[in-house]
Prior knowledge:
Low-confidence stretches: none
CATH architecture: 2-Layer Sandwich
Bound molecules: adenosine monophosphate, zinc ion
Number of strands: 5
Mean pLDDT: 97
Largest sheet: 5 strands, antiparallel
CATH class: Alpha Beta
Number of helices: 2
Strand content: 15-25%
CATH superfamily: HIT-like
Number of domains: 1
Distance between the termini: 31 Å
Helix content: 10-25%
CATH topology: HIT family, subunit A
Amino acid sequence: MSDCLFCKIVEGNIPSSKVYEDDQYYAFNDIGPQAPTHILVVAKRHLDRISSMDDGDCAMIGGLFRTAARICAEKNIEDYRLVINNGAGVGQSVFHIHLHILAGRPMGWPPG
Ligand code: AMP
Ligand code: ZN
């Protein structure tokens, strides 16, 4: 999508601190880190939010988690939190689906 921040990052039109890339996924450091490790994993194909998923998107969403696990294993990070915000009311600010990887500090439960 031409007006989507994360599509522009995936396309290289906006700079990012790349962590991982393959043909379907792109990961980069969050610009406003909420933990010592705060990485965003995005699918290269635009989907705005989890609630827009249909059955054809299941593999793509599964791949987000698989990619996150691969990145963490590569970095020897054993304990991490994976977060997807769905909707502005719970903090979604970029409407291109992305998985937050948060690690490197104690985390409370429930999340705030
Ligand atoms: P969310 O609030 O779940 O939609 O997450 C969006 C995340 O994108 C936030 O944690 C922002 O800090 C992050 N973000 C926004 N712009 C950029 C950018 N240009 N590069 C890296 N991360 C960004
Ligand atoms: Zn997009």
